[in-house]
Design brief:
Blueprint (H helix, E strand, L loop, with lengths): L2 H15 L1 H7 L3 E4 L6 E3 L3 E4 L1 H5 L3 H16 L2 H4 L5 H18 L19 H20 L1
Parallel strand pairs: 1-3
Antiparallel strand pairs: 2-3
Helix pairs in contact: 1-2, 1-4, 2-4, 4-6, 6-7
Length: about 140
């Protein structure tokens, strides 16, 4: 089975088992991005690295696809504003992964999870992470 077939199969499972996620996933184009190392979205499509997707089992592919769907659904690509892109992505990942775990999705190893962010918005998580980063830099400089 090709990588494209695997990701399409994951979308089909989302349609059958998680209609909210599946209906959103079906609206996003799938774009292969060799060497990218992960998945990403720009709000219109899902970019995927075939080597990364092939390294995952089916449950993890479904989980990571739902992850990207939530980025689009929650308008993360629009809400960032002037915030630091890398830190914003981390904050949104923390929030999304907690939602997915509650919804009983399986996520690949290494996904960002921290229960202290339970119930917080991406903006709230971002502010905490930004403050912690600033405190760490001040400590290193001191």
């Amino acid at each position: 089975m090709t990588t494209l077939e695997k990701i399409k199969q994951a979308r089909q499972v989302l349609i059958l088992d998680h209609i909210f996620y599946g209906s959103k996933a079906m609206r996003l184009d799938l774009i292969e991005k060799i060497g990218y190392g992960t998945l990403a979205t720009d709000g219109k499509c899902i970019l995927y690295d075939p080597a990364y997707l092939d390294s995952l089992n089916n449950a993890e592919r479904i989980g990571i696809l739902a992850h990207e769907v939530l980025h689009v659904t929650l308008l993360d690509h629009i809400r960032r504003g002037n915030r630091d892109l890398a830190l914003w992505n981390i904050a949104t990942d923390y929030r999304i992964n907690l939602i997915l775990i509650k919804d009983r999705f399986i996520l690949p190893d290494g996904m960002l999870l921290d229960s202290r962010f339970e119930g917080l918005s991406a903006e709230g998580i971002y502010d905490i992470l930004k403050q912690e980063k600033q405190e760490k830099q001040e400590k290193q400089e001191g």
